[in-house]
Description:
The protein has helices spanning 19-25, 77-92, 108-117, 152-160, 192-196, 267-271, 293-311, 326-339, 368-373, 384-392, 406-410, 412-421, 434-438, 478-488, 498-508, 517-520, 529-532, and strands at residues 3-6, 9-12, 49-52, 59-60, 71-73, 134-135, 140-142, 166-169, 176-179, 202-204, 217-222, 231-236, 249-254, 284-286, 289-291, 316-319, 343-345, 398-402, 424-429, 441-444, 453-456, 461-465, 525-526. The protein is an alpha+beta fold. The strands form six sheets. The chain has a seven-stranded mixed β-sheet, sandwiched between helices. It has a five-stranded mixed β-sheet with strand order 2-1-5-3-4, sandwiched between helices. A three-stranded antiparallel β-sheet has the order 6-7-10. A hairpin with a 2-residue loop joins strand 1 and strand 2. The longest helix has 19 residues, at 293-311. The protein is elongated, with a radius of gyration of 28 Å. It starts with a strand and ends in a 5-residue tail after the last helix. One iron/sulfur cluster binds at residues 147-153, 177, 196-197, 199, 201-202. One iron/sulfur cluster is lined by residues 223, 225-226, 228-230, 261, 265-266, 268-269, 359-361.
Amino acid sequence: MPTLTIDGRQVSSPDGSTVIQAAETLGIFVPRYCYHPGLSIAGNCRICLVDVEKNPKLQIACNTPVAEGMVVHTKNAKAEDGRRAVLEFLLANHPLDCPVCDQSGECELQNFYMNFGLYDPRFREQKVKKKKAVLIGPHVLLDQERCILCSRCVRFTDEISKTGEFGIFNRGDRAELGLYPGQRLDNPYSGNVIDVCPVGALTEQDFRFKARVWYLSSAPSVCNGCAQGCNIDVHYVLDRPHLNDGARVLRLKPRYNADVNQWWMCDEGRFGFGWMDHGRLTKVRHQGVDSTWEPAVAAITTALAKFHQNGTGSRLGVIASSQLTNEELFLIRDLFQGALRARVTASVPTPPGYSDDFLIKADKNPNTLGARLLGLDGPSAQEAAVIVDAALQGQIDALWVFGHDLAKLFGDEKIEELSRKLGLFVFSGTNENATASRSHWVLPTAAYVEKDGTFVNCHGRVQRIGRAFPPLSDSREDWSILLEIARQLNHPLPWKNPKEIFLGLAQAVAPFAGLSYEQIGLHGVDLPTAAAGTAAS
Length: 537
Ligand code: SF4
Ligand code: SF4
Ligand code: FES
């Protein structure tokens, strides 16, 4: 492992690593455009120039391997002059339309000019004109004038999505980024080119002009779009309700996790967040009429207690969901399966969706494995269809459905019949659907970005989701509804929040043993492999 000196500090870096990587381990940031740790090295932008002693010319840090005894200066006058010259070239033909550029505020051209450039512009000639704001696929716009030809997007489509739509065409100042003839940028991972583009050349159609980025807040979470559980940052705005019809979530971005999604996420996960602000259930409803939480919880607990006494609990049914957190499923298990002896399942037949051998999984639930570890899915769990049939045959008096649209799964007629036959039919969920409109009580619940908790992804990794902001309108977190129902049923549980519930879960369910929110941290923890594959305790 060679030892070198960077800006007067010694560092040992693995054989084959580069100066930019060695500098990073010391916390020294070397500017970069074409270098991206998830892509091959191109070495074409030259912004990462550093001064290596005994070398007459400046070297590019991204493609210079470390060597024993090397002495590198990233901040001396020679290196800084070199970078200023590179920026002057890059900006010679750049339109400098930052005020109307959606990248403004998170643009590396702006940032590096401020941090490392700051020269007096000398370019007075007419700039080369290229195409602007061209929609090149369902999600991405291209502005060729802003492109600095770093080729990150080309390498992403060649190496990661392996779809190869992009190329760099022509020479000199006429060189431009574009699509090969007849191509569109329409692959399942197309949105990632927006992230890798260091400037405003590739921007997002959906997000464009919705908010200046400095108005955005960010919270870490995990995508609920499939069983992979890609790590994400939720970008939201709360204090501008006059914009975007009051929508709070404006975009999702992948959050680096070496073990789950690296730097990437799929388009379905990235762009499929509209439901968090649109079509939401916002009010408690009873038989189609707006109500409030107090009478709802009182009526539901009274009915549950009555039906429980009637038939030793087996006349109660619960169809839970793998969209719920482990903490919520644990409460459902404890309260309904344990105390009320209800029939409980999270095994609901949803048709498998699109999948590939990269990130996208056919199971579109984020927590199927968590439900399985709690025994609510998998071989030991009843199918939802069995519970629905039992209810139709009059063997169940009370049914609580968490989030699912049973009408879509089993047909509207059956659900209408359920509504007539059941003594109590509760639907709790985030969004309107046909089952909500057939149920006796509708309880509006928090979206996963509005609550804390954990999911277990398909590889057995337990990961935390985080509450970015409070639940919309009258909606409440499922865990808080369940704790209140338990309290009113004289089955008080000792926990006050998801963090405490998780500690209870970790004591009761073997694969989670010894874990806490602190240990899971921002990037998750792999559960014991053998345990992760089977239903437990
Ligand atoms: S569009 Fe962006 S990522 Fe692609 S080459 Fe141009 S600057 Fe680089
Ligand atoms: S692969 Fe799955 S978890 Fe990852 S972003 Fe897409 S839908 Fe979300
Ligand atoms: S980042 Fe090193 S040459 Fe582009």
